[in-house]
Design goal:
The protein is α/β, with parallel strands linked by helices. The chain has a domain of 177 residues: Rossmann fold. It is 35% helix and 14% strand. The strands form four sheets. A six-stranded parallel sheet has the order 2-1-3-4-5-6, with helices on both faces. Strands 7-10-11-12-13-14 form a six-stranded parallel sheet. Strands 8-9 form a two-stranded antiparallel sheet. Helix 8 packs across helix 9 and helix 13 runs parallel beside helix 15. It is globular.
């Protein structure tokens, strides 16, 4: 069979898109989400698999394929639905997996022929067998067949362009020890924190097309003995990597040292808020630790901290973003990510906001962290979004970045491993960088450039670190100034969240014995195998007649 697996495009700019950085490095995108390269690697021999990243490649809907698979988080599921609808119009069956299909399977089934609820490792081969026999079921419950994370092959990077992406993802663990009210990770992956073997992870790192790695794990130190063993084995691999961890890693000196020796150059930490009472309300008690001390302990070893904050919680007001900006200035936290509080399916927060009548979401696209979707006690949606844009522009102001990076690079040892570029690529990147800093933009941009370039002469800072600061600073400054106010049609109406969105995944019965039929109605009948449907011309009102062929 010929199977096409499609990662839908994100609808707008977002923190991790690295659009400017990609142009500098000659790469098309930051990274490809791991889901579909992993599914491709799990596909049994005898099938042809095509991987398509809608972010960098136009989709050829008329390319002859037998089955299409799509994945989606809620914030870009609208694009996934568009893709699925286009293929089904052409008589090509579609299966959907990922967070939205797991948390809102009934809705997904309005657009596809089959959904995978939960993880795909233990059900994908069976789904393909059923499809080949013309017996593909409507629902496959990966949530009831969780993999043990052992013996997974590396993602099928051979199906992507080796020069397409800046970073390549690696997954070492799955799950999270915490259960924050604004997060759906526990819903999707369950309560258990699972780990792979460290040797498998090492092999996956070796299989990546580049040496710039991002661990996609939600909390890489969720199992501390595993993390220490992994970092010890990674030493000497000449990779530069980043990851997501909880703040308590800052108070584990041995762990930090192992990370540094293994090539870690940034740690993403969800700090969420400066209000310790709000931390309790979010059900994230680990964040009661001192942020200033945590940032200092990590950065003094030469690893950047990307601290993430959520704005728009009930106890905050319009001074909150000023307080966060001041915190960044004083703490010298390297980079900042900001999200506006929202309530996607699968979160306890959604249920709370629905019960209080405060959920105002006009499109799933708005659940991207850049739009206010929850009614605040004292601030309008427009005010919250204006504060969001102001905070990004303030923190990524050239002079503010110059002040904190001069302070950071003046102490500690910053020795990031070099990006694996050819000599020709390195020359091109430097020329692009030089031209952009010296000939485009304000004088503050040039001051930042010369202040950071001066560290080329420091024995404590290597060239790779200097280049990283220049490239990341340029990229996130550009991103901060790309953000625009929301423009909405005057007659726009909020969407209605369905009751099943508030049902925990563990309590969903769809697909279990006695509840195999969703009852979902579709314009195009559900397809269970390779039987094609041809859409015959008709009037627009009738939408065309469908004939089986």
């Amino acid at each position: 069979m010929r199977i096409k697996l499609i990662t839908p495009a994100f609808h707008s700019r977002y923190f991790w898109d690295f659009r400017k950085l990609g142009k500098m490095l000659g790469r098309k995108s930051n990274n490809l989400l791991l889901a579909l390269p992993t599914v491709a690697s799990l596909t049994p021999e005898g099938h042809e698999v095509i991987l398509v990243d809608d972010n960098i490649t136009d989709i050829d809907y008329d390319d002859p394929v037998d089955l299409v698979g799509v994945t989606a988080m809620t914030c870009y599921v609208n694009r996934a639905f568009e893709i699925a609808d286009e293929y089904r119009k052409r008589g090509i069956p579609v299966v959907m997996g990922g967070p939205h299909a797991t948390l809102a399977p009934y809705e997904a089934l309005e657009h596809v022929d089959s959904v995978v609820i939960g993880e795909a490792e233990n059900i994908w081969a069976g789904l393909l067998e059923d499809f080949a026999k013309g017996e593909m079921k409507e629902v496959y419950r990966g949530v009831d067949a969780k993999p043990d994370m052992k013996d997974n092959p590396p993602p099928a990077w051979n199906l992507t362009g080796s020069k397409d992406y800046i970073l390549h993802g690696v997954e070492a663990t799955r799950g999270c020890p915490f259960d924050c009210h604004f997060c759906s990770i526990k819903q999707i992956y369950g309560k258990d924190f699972r780990v792979r073997t460290t040797d498998e992870v090492i092999e996956e790192i070796k299989a990546a097309p580049g040496n710039q790695i991002f661990f996609t794990d939600d909390n890489l130190i969720g199992n501390k003995p595993f993390a220490k063993e992994l970092f010890t084995k990674m030493k000497g691999m000449n990779i530069a990597w980043g990851c997501q961890m909880s703040i308590n890693v800052a108070f584990m000196p041995k762990m930090l040292q192992l990370m540094k020796e293994a090539g870690c150059f940034f740690v993403f930490i969800g700090l969420e808020t400066l209000d310790k009472d709000a931390v309790v309300a979010m059900n994230k008690p680990v964040n009661k630790m001192n942020y200033y001390d945590a940032v200092a302990k990590i950065q003094e070893l030469g690893m950047f901290v990307i601290g993430s904050f959520i704005i728009g919680t009930d106890k905050e007001d319009r001074d909150t973003v000023k307080e966060i900006a001041e915190y960044v200035k004083v703490s010298k936290q390297s980079w900042l990510m900001v999200n506006i509080m929202n309530s996607p399916p699968g979160t306890k927060f959604l249920k709370m906001m629905e019960e209080e009548g405060r959920n105002v979401v006009y499109s799933y696209d708005d659940l991207d962290g850049a739009h206010a979707t929850v009614t605040h006690p004292t601030m309008t949606h427009a005010e919250t979004e204006e504060d969001f844009r102001w905070l990004y522009r303030e923190v990524y102001d050239w002079d503010n970045m110059r002040e904190r990076f001069v302070a950071n690079l003046s102490q500690g040892h910053w020795k990031q491993n070099e990006h694996a570029l050819t000599v020709f690529e390195q020359i091109k990147v430097f020329h692009r960088l030089l031209f952009d800093f010296l000939f485009i933009g304000p004088w503050a941009k040039k001051r930042f450039f010369f202040a950071i370039m001066a560290f080329m002469l420091s024995p404590r800072v290597n060239r790779a670190t200097v280049m990283n600061v220049l490239l990341m600073g340029m990229s996130w400054n550009e991103f901060a100034h790309s953000l625009q106010p929301t423009v909405r049609a005057a007659d726009a109406q909020p969407i209605v969240f369905r009751k099943e969105y508030m049902v925990p995944v563990s309590e969903q019965t769809l697909g279990r014995a006695g509840d195999e039929d969703s009852g979902v109605e579709r314009m195009i009948p559900r397809m269970e195998g390779r039987k094609r449907l041809t859409v015959l011309p008709n009037t627009p009102e009738q939408g065309g007649e469908r004939a089986a062929v």
